[in-house]
Amino acid sequence: MPTTVIKVPSSSANIGPGFDVIGLALNLYLEVQLTVTKQDASTYPLNCRITYEGDNASSVPLVAQDNLITRTALYVLRCHGIRAFPPETHVHVINPIPLGRGLGSSAAAVVAGVQIANEVGNLQLSKARMLDYCLMEERHPDNVAAALYGGFVGTYLNELSPEDTERLEIPLSEVLPEPAGGVDTGLQPPQPPQNIGHYTKFNWSPEIKCICIIPQFEVSTAKAREVLPDSYSRKDIVFNMQRLAVLTTALGQSPPDPGMIYTAMQDKIHQPYRRGLIPGLTEILQSVTPESHPGLLGICLSGAGPTILALATANFDAIANHLVSQFKKEEITCDWKLLELAKEGTTVSQFQQPTPQLEESMTYASSGVSIDAGNDLVKAIKAYTAGTRRPGADGKIGGFGGLLDLEAAGYKESPILVGAIDGIGTKVKIAFEMDKHDTVGIDLVAMNVNDLVVQGAEPLMFLDYYACSKLSVQNAAKFVEGVANGCKQSGAALVGGETAEMPGIYKDGEYDAGGCAIGAIKRGTAILPDFSAMAEGDVLLGLASSGVHSNGFSLVRKIIEKKGLGFHDTAPWDQSRTVGENLLTPTRIYVKPLLAASRKGLVKGMAHITGGGLSENIPRMLPDTLAAELDARAWPVPDVFKWLKEAGRLEDSEFCRTFNTGLGMVLVVSEEKVRQATEILQEHGEQVYRVGSLVKRTAEDCTVLNMDVWNLR
Ligand SMILES: Nc1ncnc2c1ncn2[C@@H]1O[C@H](COP(=O)(O)OP(=O)(O)O)[C@@H](O)[C@H]1O
Ligand SMILES: N[C@@H](CCOP(=O)(O)O)C(=O)O
């Protein structure tokens, strides 16, 4: 039996000066699971069974003619000559939107009701017509337009003909079957006029997040409208219109301008009159400014209150904690939520529930693992893997194992095989935050193939492992696109992988990834590092990194958080990109240049600078008798590292034990081969620095001289 899932976003209306005009859909959703069993009769009134979980569950009526959601559905059905729900309709509501707090719970309920009628009555209503029905009930268009269409919207109501105006102004009790009115009331309720309201969507800057401070008491919107005057002075109207015109554009600009937005969010039309309903309102609104709380853009009452909406780009906890403590002075307890714009409005989707007999016999899918999604993914990524074919491997996937013909790959004599396995650590978290999944696969390949190539091995094949809670074919396919991209850069064929759906292990929307590369070294060629060839006085060459690469991200995220930055904020060290975009820069893959140099016998050893930074990785390529001595003045430290070092107050030694500091690879080359090695590497696009030399080992295995240059600005 199919279940229809209707998801309606919450909304914040007015945003200061836009009383009854602007609405902002937010990513906190009312969900209705709707099932019609198609049996002959039902024992429930109007054939409708309601179950409810969520805010105020104990006080929400569970009778079809009383509950706002089903009453609305009934009104729409009756306008179409359908008196009751089809037997038996089960409406299961999951509602995290707090009721009566100014977050559009009633608008969400009304929109859900209209959608339910559209589904069970097969009415095929357009969204514009649904808006008419919604407006027969919620007479202000701001919340319902946002809930229905999503985004940041501006709305107006049309001037209607006198008859239509009369219809629209019919009191609610005459429109809807009144709770106590029984089955015959509202038999022929008034149809809504056509095109009661219009809306448009404004841009919304992706940096802006919505801090909602939700006091633990209700203010009914109806009551909060009763306190408003019937007319206003021209001065007050002009005050609001001036701000409103600026605000709708200012909130779409990137980066948003706090100075402009803070003033543009002020209001003289509703907030001053509602302060009697919300203790301390005026003082609380005035208690924060962009100067006192950097990151804040503006503050206002959300809808009719009592929720306070603070728009901000950073410092969310500090702003929220301050506002919660202001309410505390009035002895009011609050919750708070950090919400974001819900771009999409109401969505309707279907899922097939197991039939009653099948409910007994469980399926793999019922436990949360979808074989079909896995198959869809394999289809989606076939083209990517095919793009990685190379001599010896056809880049096809789907077999039990991935094959590679060594002879066809150019290894006539049995070679030395080298294997590497690695992950990308918590860099994936930034991919989740940015909803950008096509580059972390490159990082995964880089971490493995860079480890192979430092031994002198040519990467030949790669296999990846992607584990998640629920498979998003789209995200996983993007991830594999990145893996294939990395494979192409390093000449390895992507011969297989594993996608694991493990409900309960990972958080929704998150995943982890690992990968394994196999490479080969021709028999007779040096396996690196070549300890016996290394000598005091050998030169250390460094190759520039592309940024943080894939290590140290737990520390990076901590520093970003400590500085109150979000991943969508402009990077303080790179004004052209956001923090997240900059940090997602893929790890550089050094395979082709390093193979070119090592195959010419120009390199004695190479160190891939990963977790452990310079200090821990360089000694891994050295014999016990030799140590590395680097001069920190010899290579430029990228701006991202300068910022991280200062923002995290990192000690020099900690800095070079955690990060690559600008060098992704360090090579040992004899003095006479430095020029040739440098030329070959530069021809392959590398930036090469002479960063130090090998010295006799005493106590330290790696010393970096002149680290104080890292602290000069
Ligand atoms: N999901 C729901 N189911 C039933 N009734 C609801 C639901 N959501 C809202 N309501 C009704 O709407 C009232 C709140 O509406 P309103 O005063 O406009 O506040 P809000 O700012 O939350 O929209 C609730 O007290 C309740 O009667
Ligand atoms: N423009 C309306 C908005 C009411 O929003 P709600 O979320 O409190 O229902 C008003 O200010 O009255």
TrEMBL record:
GO BP of this protein: 'de novo' IMP biosynthetic process; adenine biosynthetic process; sterol biosynthetic process; threonine biosynthetic process
A cellular-component GO term for this protein: cytosol
Domain PurM-like N-terminal as annotated: residue spans: 417-520
GO molecular function, one term: ATP binding
UniProt-listed InterPro entries: GHMP_kinase_C_sf, GHMP_kinase_N_dom, GHMP_knse_ATP-bd_CS, Homoserine_kinase, PurM-like_C_dom, PurM-like_C_sf, PurM-like_N, PurM-like_N_sf
Official protein name in the record: Homoserine kinase
Pathway: Amino-acid biosynthesis; L-threonine biosynthesis; L-threonine from L-aspartate: step 4/5; Purine metabolism; IMP biosynthesis via de novo pathway; 5-amino-1-(5-phospho-D-ribosyl)imidazole from N(2)-formyl-N(1)-(5-phospho-D-ribosyl)glycinamide: step 2/2
Record carries keyword Nucleotide-binding: yes
General function of this protein: Commits homoserine to the threonine biosynthesis pathway by catalyzing its O-phosphorylation.
Keyword Membrane in annotation: no
PANTHER family noted in UniProt: TRIFUNCTIONAL PURINE BIOSYNTHETIC PROTEIN ADENOSINE-3 (PTHR10520:SF12), TRIFUNCTIONAL PURINE BIOSYNTHETIC PROTEIN ADENOSINE-3-RELATED (PTHR10520)
Keywords, alphabetical: Amino-acid biosynthesis, ATP-binding, Kinase, Ligase, Lipid biosynthesis, Lipid metabolism, Nucleotide-binding, Purine biosynthesis, Steroid biosynthesis, Steroid metabolism, Sterol biosynthesis, Sterol metabolism, Threonine biosynthesis, Transferase
Catalytic activity: L-homoserine + ATP = O-phospho-L-homoserine + ADP + H(+)
